[in-house]
Amino acid sequence: RLSRGLAPALGYLGSRQKHSLPDLPYDYGALEPHINAQIMQLHHSKHHAAYVNNLNVTEEKYQEALAKGDVTAQIALQPALKFNGGGHINHSIFWTNLSPNGGGEPKGELLEAIKRDFGSFEKFKEKLTAASVGVQGSGWGWLGFNKERGQLQIAACLNQDPLQGTTGLIPLLGIDVWEHAYYLQYKNVRPDYLKAIWNVINWENVTERYMACKK
């Protein structure tokens, strides 16, 4: 009974397909000069790939623990599942949140919601930038949607903690502030990276996510 109760953490009880690294919707150099090709290549092909590989390994071990009814082993695997599963979820959103044709401001309903919940687009930018700069160590700054309140909210998550799985907010826009996301170009000056990333934010993607979770 206990082991079945923990199973939904992985969303399966039987056979499963392995997770795979998603293709980027643009070339590694497409976001230059704001994020250089070397960072993008390492970030996608090494860092994200490692989360995917380790998630698959963790899920295999979890499946074995489920089959044996070994609740202790299941609990012991939870941190690795959260870290690697979160890393895969977060980066899969992040790549689509960026575009070589990005920048500027959102339009339509998303812009209206931003104005309603933050006062103006500039105030929203300031708040999300401040939340992202303020992450101690590694983590993410997020624009999320609170479905219960019908409101946009800004949140910061440590490490690879996935926004929805840890706060309940639906992720719309994530900004990766792990040093591997910017160090090769911006060194330790995180605010410069955050200033630059607004030039490649894919507002069409963020708007699609907003419209989908409003349904």
TrEMBL record:
Signal peptide: none annotated. Mn(2+) binds at residues 43, 91, 176, 180. This is Superoxide dismutase. Residues 106-209 form the Manganese/iron superoxide dismutase C-terminal domain. One of its GO terms (molecular function) is superoxide dismutase activity. GO terms for cellular component: mitochondrial matrix. Coiled coil: none annotated. It catalyses: 2 superoxide + 2 H(+) = H2O2 + O2. Residues 18-99 form the Manganese/iron superoxide dismutase N-terminal domain. Its EC number is 1.15.1.1.
